[in-house]
Amino acid sequence: MKKLILSVVLLCSAVAAFACTNLIVGKKASADGSVMCTYNCDGFGFAQPLSISLPGRHAEGEMVAIHGWGPQAVGRQIAEAPYTYGVVGLMNENQVTIVETTWDGRRELHNRDGFLDYFTLMGLALQRSTTAREAIVVMHELVQEYGYNATGESFAVCDKDEAWIMELIGKGPGRKGAVWVALRVPDDCICAYANSSRIRQFPQVAKMSKADKKRGYCEIEGQCMYAADVISLARELGFYEGSDADFSFREAYGPLDFGAIRYCEARVWSFFRHHYDTAEMDSYLPFINGHTEICDHLPLWIKPVAPLSVRDLMNDMRDHYEGTALDMTADVSAGPWASPYRNQPVNYFSSDSTAMFRERPIGCQQSGMTMVCQMRSWLPDAVGGVTYFNMDDATMVAYVPVYCGITRIPDPFRRENNNITEFSTESAFWMNNFVANMVYPRWSAMIGDLRDAQKELEDFYAEDQKSVEETAVKMTPGDRAAFLTAKTEMYTDMMMKRWDKLAKFLIVKHNDQIAQPSENGVIVRGRRTSPAYAPAFIDAVKSVTGDRYVKPAEKK
To answer: Which H or E run contains 406?
Structure first.
């Protein structure tokens, strides 16, 4: 247990503002009936390996140490549960999955004396839950007993049948617990979170019962759960004055500003746009541009025009607003190679002190890890739960299937092999970054080669998983765990070898900023070419330099 909590709480300790994206898919909105959710954990300067905690029984009175954020945090003890479920990454052996995104909200509600930060809370809930609903109750009970010491947080809490979204924030110094609202995502809908509070009005019980007050939360079966004092606390602190029916969690605890809209809600908008009528979604552009007098919110969820597959979600996690009004590859700031990546901070100033900003897409170079989680009710839990995982930017990696029933972590994803200060060919983080940082500076010239390798691996995994799962369901639990562990290790080893091959291929093909011809990932004899700069960049050079680079007309 101690190992898991120490591993998990370090996950996003270095995450910068506007980090992390979650996409959520109900079972009737997916192509195969699975529930799905995703997580890009973003923040410069950290590598996030894959963690594991094996199941176990615990004696009465046994305690577990939690250490909060980072190695300097004061260790504290809380009561262990009688039984803890196995957890791989952010999915437990029952296919319960919890992912998160931070929105801070009202900073005055941060209670530094609470025991539990959000990642410790997630880890404990995963170890103690058999369903998403149970996980929400466990999180509530834990913060009630031990206190919450982080800022505003959104969680996607999912299992093999249901997807829930939960927003939670502390009550301020001297107040234990947290206020929160959790809503079930309709089974035929998709939802998303990207560092902003999104729940506004929510269903409420007609009258709060004594039982509601005693346990500290209210419930409308299958629809909504919320802290009993979520509205009364807002009134007490002066955040809200209206009727209960009109109460908006977002307006009270996490009101939006331009940054929350453009850097956060825009990611939700782009995801919805992939899977809905684009013209209708573009009608929300005034909101994305900060004109809240015209429109002040996006839909909380939408019913997609077609069911989503795992591969759809993988591609959604690689989004840079391509093909939209916010397309990061289409203007001069994309540079000579039409890159969707920007090196400057999100907020910066021009030479004349004009305040400026850059776009913040779903796919970004600072990801420490990325995952697409799939939960399937018709399979044994050990087979049905899969985390498609890798370390670094989703755009630049191949997602590796990791079954929730494995008993050990593949070596390239282990913490000891992913030292942030030392390059290693045994590290998934560093091999992925090795390739990515070759491609970033010459995006349009090189990204096609990376995508070929990415597709090759992900196609193989998808096809191979069919026979793997057909075999696994017929096995005894013990044999199944060993089999899936070996397969997960094989998939990871394949990825590492393919990325080593890709790195060597890229340096040969694109040496000295030319391109040698290739076929099926192999260099062939032929004429070398010099890839052209992006048209927007060429036009900008001409505009700025005037006639300097204009070639004189040939004399006849």
So the answer is: none
User: Based on the structure, what is the number of domains in the chain?
Assistant: 1
- Its domain, for residue 304, covers 2-357
Q: Which two tokens stand for residue 208?
A: 């709060």
Radius of gyration of the chain (CA): 24
Does residue 284 form part of some domain? yes
Query: Is there a domain that residue 313 lies in?
Result: yes
Nearest of 240, 173, 146, 159 to residue 201 by alpha carbon: 240
Q: 399 Cβ partners below 8 Å, 6+ apart? A: 314, 370, 371, 372, 388, 389, 390, 458, 461
Residue 360: closest CA among 386, 378, 380, 340: 340
pLDDT per residue as tens, the chain (556 positions) = 333 333 333 344 333 445 899 999 999 999 999 999 999 999 888 889 999 999 999 999 999 988 766 444 567 899 999 999 999 999 999 999 999 999 999 999 999 899 999 999 999 999 999 999 999 999 999 999 999 999 999 999 999 999 999 999 999 999 999 999 999 999 999 999 999 999 999 999 999 999 999 999 999 999 999 999 999 999 999 999 999 999 999 999 999 999 999 999 999 999 999 999 999 999 999 999 999 999 999 999 999 999 999 999 999 999 999 999 999 999 999 999 999 999 888 999 999 999 999 999 999 999 999 999 999 999 999 999 999 999 999 999 999 999 999 999 999 999 999 999 999 999 999 999 999 999 999 999 999 999 999 999 999 999 999 999 999 999 999 999 999 999 999 999 999 999 999 999 999 999 988 888 888 888 888 888 888 899 999 999 999 999 999 999 888 7
Instruction: Name the DSSP letter for residue 261.
Output: I
Residue labelled with tokens 């890009």: 40
Residue at 545 is within a domain: no
Structure tokens at 155: 């969680």
Q: Is the dihedral of CA 495, 498, 499, 500 positive or negative?
A: positive
Could you tell me which of 292, 309, 325 has the C-alpha nearest to residue 190?
A: 309
The pTM of the full predicted model, rounded to 2 decimals, is: 0.94
CA distances from residue 93 to 231, 418, 438, 484 in whole angstroms, order as listed: 35, 25, 38, 13
Q: Cα angle vertex 510, ends 504, 511, to 5°?
A: 85
- Tell me how far apart the alpha carbons of residues 280 and 271 are, in angstroms, rounded to a whole number: 13
Q: Are 373 and 37 in contact (CB under 8 A)?
A: yes
What is the SS3 assignment for 300-336? CEECCCCCECHHHHHHHCCCCCCCCCCCCCCCHHHCC
Rounded to 5°, angle at Cα 89 from 85 and 93? 30
* CA diameter of the chain: 97
Per the domain annotation, does 214 fall within a domain? yes
